[in-house]
Amino acid sequence: MDIILILKAIIIGIVEGITEFIPISSTGHMILVGWAIGFEGAFAKMYEVVIQLGAIMAVVVLYWSKIKDSIIDFFIFIFTKGKEGKNGFKFGINVIVASIPMSIVGMLFYSKIKSMFEPEVVIVGFIVGGLLLLLIERLYSNKKCKEDRIDNITFVHAFKIGVFQLLALCPGMSRSASTIMGGWMAGLSTPLAAEFSFFIAIPAMIGTSAKDLLEFDYSIMTQTLWFSLIIGFIVAFIIALIVIKKFITYLKKKPMKVFAVYRVIAGSLLAILVLTNIIKLTV
Fold first, then answer.
1. Domain for residue 99, yes or no?
2. What parts of the sequence cross the membrane (predicted)?
3. Where residue 283 falls among pLDDT bands split at 50, 70, 90?
4. Structural domains of the chain, count
């Protein structure tokens, strides 16, 4: 087995687990770290998709009770013609409504979106996303009467969040940051906006991953590549489990400013290094 390749896969798995649900862009970090350690090529692109699903499984495990009850209530509502299961049905429709903008735009512009997955675009996304996070948090997140119960989210709230999720199609912008900003503008508290972003990540990630996985040439897979894939999935899952819990606890006490500042500083530093030819980005 190629131990170096396995170690690189583990590093990317750790990066994914840490960054998937905090507003600093998991895709952007995987692209940049992958470039830095030489983890590139067809397998690397497929690998990044699979370990994102590993991180999503952490959401399913942590929120399984809510997900299970909502699915059951969804069908109870249908079979009882609205007499029972209203909350679960409403929650399910909210997730669907929030997923519609991403589904439509993703299908129509898939190839163009994939062509943007370059380090240079990530750097711009880091800076622009960080500045937006600072601005929108300042304007909206500290307003009084913020909604803090997930069962009270309306279809309008969900659609606004779904529209903002489109920003995540640009590498470096961050799906988490985009949906949380949408949540703020829709009137949600920061912890609730973050939790709702976890739920709508499930269909978003499955949908965007399906095409890549179906089109991948699995004939290139070796024992080392399969082992790397499995290890990376597990690592991303475990790290994401830890990070989600810590992130929600953090948001109940402190603002998101630290993540925005990190993004702007990291993006600006990388931009300076590239513009001065100290580093050259080639993928």
1. yes
2. 12-37, 49-67, 88-109, 121-140, 183-206, 226-248, 260-279
3. very low
4. 1
Contact yes or no for 235/182 (Cβ under 8 A): no
Euclidean distance between CA atoms 47 and 209, whole angstroms: 11
Per-residue pLDDT averaged across 196-206, rounded? 90
Q: How far is CA 131 from the centre of its chain?
A: 19
In Å, how far are 189, 202, 211 from 272, measured between CA atoms? 36, 36, 36
Residues 6 or more apart whose CB falls under 8 angstroms from that of 140 comprise 184, 185
Q: Does residue 281 lie in a domain region?
A: no
Question: What is the rounded (10 degree) CA torsion for 170, 99, 260, 264?
Answer: 0
Q: How far apart are CA 247 and CA 190, in angstroms?
A: 11
- 224 is in which domain, residue-wise? 3-275
H-helix or E-strand spanning residue 66: helix 64-79
**Looking at the predicted structure, is the pLDDT value of residue 282 above 90?**
no
Q: Does 103 fall in a domain? A: yes
Q: Decide: helix, strand or coil at residue 1.
A: coil
Nearest CA-CA partner of 197 in 179, 222, 216, 217? 179
Rounded mean pLDDT of the chain?
Answer: 90
Strand partners, 147: 188
CA–CA separation, 43 and 243 (whole Å): 26
By CB atoms closer than 10 A (0-12, 13-18, 19+), residue 46 is: buried
Kindly provide the b/e burial profile for residues 121-134, where b requires at least 16 CB atoms within 10 angstroms of the residue's own CB: bbbbbbbbbbebbb
Is 280 within a domain?
Answer: no
Which amino acid is present at 9? A
Report in angstroms the alpha-carbon separations of 11 from 8, 130, 270: 5, 24, 20
As a whole number of Å, the CA-based R_g of the chain is 19
